[in-house]
Structure formats: C-alpha cells, structure tokens
Write a structure and sequence with these properties.
CATH class of the largest domain: Alpha Beta
Largest sheet: 5 strands, parallel
Helix content: 25-40%
Number of strands: 15
Shape: globular
Distance between the termini: 34 Å
Structural class: alpha/beta
Order of helices and strands: EHEHEHEHEHHEEEEEHEEEEE
Strand order of the largest sheet: 2-1-3-4-5
C-alpha cells in the first residue's frame, strides 16, 4: 500500500487534500501530517513515505527548502530499502508551479485541491511508482531512473523557486575559503572539480589543490549554483565540466572518471539513473 505525508500550515487545507485524496486514491495511506517544513523533513525521515505533499509557503522552513533537505536524507544506500519519495508541491501561486509542471520535473496541486487536477497528479505518480517497482524486480543492470528529487533539473528548479520565495537570500558561492596544509586559501568555485564529504570534513579538489572545509554537502547544495554541479552521491558533488566518463567496476557500481585525475568517484544507487544513456 503506497504511503504519503501531507505538509501544510493550514489545517483546513490539510483536511481538504486528505479528503480529495481519499476520493481519487482510496488505497493511499496518509501516515503523517506536518504544520511546517521542518516537521515535514523530520516526519519524512521517520516514516519513509512514498509521496510527500509540500505546501510551498510554510513557516520555519518553506516547502521548497524542505524538499531540498528531503533530497539529502539517506535512501536505500544506507537504510533498509527506502528508495526515497516523490514530491508534490501544494501552492496557491500559479507562477511557482506551471513552469515546473510543464517541464515534468515535479507535480503540483493548486489550492484548493480540485478532483480533476488531482487525478492527473495521482496518475503520474502511480505510473512512476509502478515503473520503479517493475524495475526493482527485473534482473538487468540498467539503473532505474532517478527520483525527481535526485535529478539536476529538480535541484536547479528548487534553487529558482527558492530565490523567488526568498528574494533577499545570499548570492551563490563564488569562492571557497579552505584549509590547505597550514594556510587558508580562497578557491574559485568554478575551479573545483568535486566536493566529497566524510563525517567531519568536506574535501575540495581542484586540478592542483586538495583542501578541506567544515561544510557538509547538504549545505553546499543550497549555496552552490547547481547548474555547475551534479550530485552523484549523498556525500559527493561533481563539477559537470569535470566529468570525463562513467564506467562500472566488478561489483556493478557506476564510477565517474574525473578529468585530469586518476581518481574515480562512486555514484550511489539513488543517482545512478543520471547516467542511464551512458
């Protein structure tokens, strides 16, 4: 039985959407409801739903920022099989939704939820869930398509939406202040080949310098221009221009070759579909 979480700061809107979903998708189990984006992230991590309905404008944390944090939650690379979730935005503002919907990056529901429009969203999600289930049961090595939250298009879209909702947000990082041996250096972001994190530090690699910063990948995703970088693992961001190719090792894992370096970076299962055509 598919599961879902509803996040909206208006109780009546949550009740109305729950009622409409019961009409168009009676098998769907609403496992939790959240009043703000922060609750939505915590409840998603707790319940591992298949779908998360996020109001775009919420207190504490917007739905857009919540979606970005949800995309950074551990999926089946580190947990007991949760493949991540579909995201559906709830909005009263057409300008935030139409572009995303037309590009097919993410689904949306306009307030108040209308039965006919919700049926379109439900049909799209049901198809994607069914395709993913079919793929999980086959014996091919072909990677499944990445979840919408795990695609460069989605990351770029979330950045655009975030800038619309928060016009006074800081500009994207142009420089990285990093420790190189015993000194601090200013490294242009465009010179960075990749970022890769462990539990404490993030390694910043250029063609000539290896440096360290105390900033996790989930923060870098929010601060960097995601048109320049792809996330290929929960702990790895790579400059698109630094991707030389993709291969498989003896265990079937995808490995990205980095231009100018002998090092190869592992692609996690959640992001393997990024290189489906390669």
């Amino acid at each position: 039985m598919p599961t879902a979480l509803i996040a909206d700061d208006e109780r009546l809107m949550r009740e109305q959407l729950r009622s409409r979903l019961r009409e168009v998708w009676p098998e769907l189990d609403i496992v939790a409801e959240a009043k703000n984006g922060q609750e939505a992230v915590a409840l998603t991590e707790q319940h591992h739903p298949d779908i998360v309905f996020l109001d775009i404008r919420m207190p504490v944390l917007t739905g857009v920022d919540a979606a970005r944090q949800i995309a950074q939650l551990p999926t089946y690379d580190e947990t007991d099989g949760w493949p991540g979730c579909e995201v559906v935005f709830i909005t009263a503002y057409d300008q935030y939704a139409v572009e995303a919907f037309e590009q097919g990056v993410v689904d949306y529901v306009l307030k108040p939820a209308e039965r006919e429009r919700l049926q379109v969203t439900v049909a799209r999600i049901q198809k994607r869930l069914a395709d993913r289930a079919d793929h999980a049961g086959d014996d091919t090595d072909e990677p499944a398509s990445p979840l919408p939250t795990h695609t460069p298009d989605m990351q770029q879209l979330l950045q655009r939406l975030s800038s619309q909702i928060n016009p006074n947000a800081p500009a994207k990082l142009k420089w990285i202040q990093a420790t190189v041996r015993q000194s601090i250096q200013m490294i242009p972001v465009e010179d960075v080949l990749f970022f890769i994190s462990d539990e404490k530090y993030t390694r910043v690699q250029t063609a000539t310098v290896e440096a360290l910063i105390r900033k996790p990948i989930k923060e870098l995703v929010e601060e960097l221009d995601m048109q320049l970088f792809w996330q290929i693992h929960r702990s790895t961001l790579i400059n698109v221009k630094a991707i030389a190719g993709v291969s498989r090792d003896e265990r079937g894992r995808q490995l990205v070759s980095v231009r100018g370096l002998s090092e190869k970076l592992e692609v996690s299962r959640s992001y393997a579909g990024l290189f489906k055509a390669m």
